[in-house]
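Box 3.1 A note on notation
Throughout this textbook, protein chains are presented in two layers. The first layer is the amino acid sequence; the second is a token string describing backbone geometry. Keep the layers aligned when reading.
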Amino acid sequence: MAKPSLKQDSKGASAFSRFEWLLAGRYLRSRKREAGVSVIAGFSFVGIMLGVAALIIVMSVMNGFRTELLSRILGVNGHVIVMPIDQPLSDYDEVAQRIDQVPGVAYSMPLVQGQILSQGMGTSSSGALVKGVSEASLKSLTPVSDNISQGSIENFDGGEGVAIGARLAERLGLRIEDRITLISPEGDVTPLGTTPRVKSYPVDAIFEIGLSEYDAAYVYMPLSEAQLFFNSEGETQSVEVFVDDPDNVADLQPAIEAAAQRPVYSVTWQSQNQSFFSALQVERNVMFIILTLIVLVAALNIISGLFMLVKGKGRDIAILRTMGATRGSIMRIFFITGASIGVSGTIAGFVLGLLFCLNIESIRAFFSWLSGVDLFNSEIYFLSELPAEVQASEVTLVVLMAIGLSFLATILPSWQASRLDPVEALRYE
């Protein structure tokens, strides 16, 4: 039987047939005459890989930052803060019980708080925020009660001891059963003026939330002791309300105010932290745009590399056309050549980005050890560990965007190759 010709094969072959893939594979392999094309293809592959990996890593870290900060901030601070108008909040227990009956409210917590200066056993001192709460309320704050590193908060209401953050304890050189001295400027009124109030308390517990700002500043005190310390006997400053769904807290705000059954005004966590989380969102969007440019530049390299390949393969294209290869077949050959670089680079970047995110804390620790510099200072970034949260929807968007840009980059040079006139290409051969 006679061997079928290329002309017969090409006419009968379907789109993206075997011979198109074979020719595209040959064009991707390096030859001495096409060293420049191979170098550009290599740079395009590396550029797309690094761009995709960088996008996945940065977006995951930004997501991790937002989730960790949000969970810790909302875990220890009320989602709605209810404060009295005109009259002191002396009926705080009744108000809290009525608010607890509102559907969607997890629990409420009467609170007395104030800024103080704290001192340890030596001469060291640090500013701190005292929060006076009941034992039941403190146990409901799971970021605190579940992260007690030393001591205990059992019988918290029955004693005079306090619970302090781990970083504050480290800064003041305190351990369990040591005494911390608290100094408040709002003390006793005397004929000579107001004198600061100074009192020492035993340290019953040390907690570590993982948010350095809180671990270095928060002091939890029994509610009755805080009322005495801040001259607020029989009353509280506010009632902090925690809800089941913090994202929809604004819908519950009118019902919470109505349940208080007295003149109050309230603020939500969203209004208190709006500028902070808005800045995170803006930074996240800007980083996405900047890193997308890396993928775009790599895609432009694919265009230049394919144009060089088309120019160098003009004679081959002309011969294929005279043997019966269609314009569509030529276009598909060069499309496969360029798209293969983009798809393989995207897959490699996807794998690299996921591996980096899954081992990001180990990688950070390694580079910190290698450079001798703390690359993630918790005092600056608030968190004690570098977080990363990979979201499938965002990773899918990044992968599809990179593949889409790679496909678009191959269309023009592939179209130019298909429009090549065989007669003009072979005229001077």
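The first strand starts at residue 80 and ends at 84. Residues 6-69+276-426 form one domain.
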